[in-house]
Amino acid sequence: MTATTNIAEAAARKAGRIIIRAMENLDDLEITEKSRNDYATEVDRASEKAIIDHILATFPDDKI
Predict the structure, then answer these.
(1) Average pLDDT for the chain
(2) pTM of the prediction?
(3) How big is the chain by its Cα radius of gyration, in Å?
């Protein structure tokens, strides 16, 4: 694998750990409606943030 692929995989694994931990408390999820029939949870936001943070830590000059 390339270095970029390894970074992407590591970012995805971080997000995956957040999602797996959240599965233990599904009843406690806060769900918000972003737009009609488009929902997000705090887990969605946290996993997205983990991916972005990991990528930006490695490529600080890149834009996401």
Answers:
(1) 93
(2) 0.82
(3) 14
